[in-house]
Design a protein that fits this description.
141 residues, mainly alpha, 3 helical TM bundles of succinate and fumarate reductases, 0% strand
Length: 141
């Protein structure tokens, strides 16, 4: 029996995890963040039913600068989740992973063939996030 010597820390910082594993973990975390936002959004918009006074009260709370920062984090989550999901859909259809070959040592996997596309999409995420940061924080409203 193999013991888990890393404990909870090993979930995110296991030394032998590949780049794809970290992309998977981040895909899960961003998906959970988007679901959490959806639930909070439904709760907040429910105040509209309670009347204009309740709506104005919750809107004053929502316009707090910390919540504006979390809105920007949500933007980053949506961009990453969408582009990484696009990469995963293409991989599901076999696009970008190549044809299977003979398994001779040293073994190659489709994970090695996807690294370039993964880095390209992460570069796109960075560009979109920087443009979004300029819109969120630098451009006058």
């Amino acid at each position: 029996m193999i013991k888990n010597l890393l404990g909870i820390k090993g979930w995110a910082f296991a030394g032998k995890f590949s780049l794809q594993r970290y992309a998977y973990i981040l895909q899960r975390i961003t998906g959970l963040g988007i679901i959490l936002y959806l639930l909070m959004h439904l709760y907040v918009t429910g105040f509209k039913i309670k009347g204009q006074e309740a709506w104005n009260s919750i809107m004053q709370t929502v316009h707090h600068p910390i919540l504006h920062f979390f809105e920007f984090l949500l933007f980053i989550c949506v961009i990453y989740h969408a582009l990484n999901g696009f990469r995963l859909i293409l991989a599901e259809f076999g696009i970008g992973i190549g044809k299977p070959g003979r398994q001779v040592y040293p073994y190659t996997t489709s994970v090695d063939r996807q690294k370039g596309f993964f880095f390209f999409l992460m570069f796109l995420v960075l560009i979109i996030v920087l443009v979004g940061a300029a819109d969120f924080y630098l451009l006058p409203k």
